[in-house]
Amino acid sequence: MITLRTSPTSPYGRKARIAVAVLGIEDQVQLDWADTRATSGSLYDQNPLAKVPTVLLENGDVVYDSRVVLELLDQMAGGGVIIPKGDTRIAVLTKQAMADGIVDAAIQAQIETRNHPEEHWNNVWIERQLGKVNRCLKAFNDNPLPTPEQSNGIPDCAQIALACALGYLDLRANGDWRKDNPDLVKWHTAFIEQVPAYDATLAPEMLEKS
Ligand SMILES: N[C@@H](CCC(=O)N[C@@H](CS)C(=O)NCC(=O)O)C(=O)O
Questions:
Q1: Which atom of ligand 1 is nearest to the CA of 34?
Q2: 53-83 pLDDT, tens per residue?
Q3: How far from 153 is each of 81, 171, 191, 195, CA to CA, in Å?
Q4: Which structural domains are found in the chain, ordered by start?
Q5: Measured in angstroms, how far is the CA atom of residue 193 from the centroid of ligand 1?
Q6: Reported confidence tier of residue 152, pLDDT bands at 50, 70, 90
Q7: Ligand 1: distance of its center to the CA of 52 in Å?
């Protein structure tokens, strides 16, 4: 049994929670909520980055960063399920990085607006980060990923990461991504219909907005 430490709203942790469900390995993973706002405590002892998701293995090893965690979970399910082994592997991992990058950049912009009064915002920095978000959204809108049903019925790591990124923008950025990206909205709707674990991993705050 491994322990997955995460928080209810973390989009990176949600990737891992969805992966556990679609891989069908719930019986091998126990969930343990971690407080990412704490300034000390067990997460700091387990992972010097003090970030979630963090996974504790039975042998005492610790695994972190959602992309590595997804590799671990995929291996536990036999490998090649959510991270393809063949020719498409690098392309899928790159798309996963692009989807994660949407969240990375959105968080950077939010840190600036959340931590400073508006007159002190660094608008150049905010625009730089929002540019990354919008370019990635446009790329996914113009060249949609396959839906899980169009691939092998199980979402791959890029599809999982993109769905979590869009869920994060719904939660923290009022779903503004929807107005300029109609094909991405369709893709997101299909993902939600085809992957029950998406709704099952909605945080209480997200439920209020959905
Ligand atoms: N690249 C990491 C990012 C993880 C991350 O930033 N997690 C956030 C929660 S959404 C966190 O733990 N933040 C606490 C902190 O940075 O102190 C991944 O993919 O796992």
A1: 12
A2: 999 999 999 999 999 999 999 999 999 999 9
A3: 10, 27, 11, 9
A4: 2-76 (3.40.30.10), 89-209 (1.20.1050.10)
A5: 27
A6: confident
A7: 5
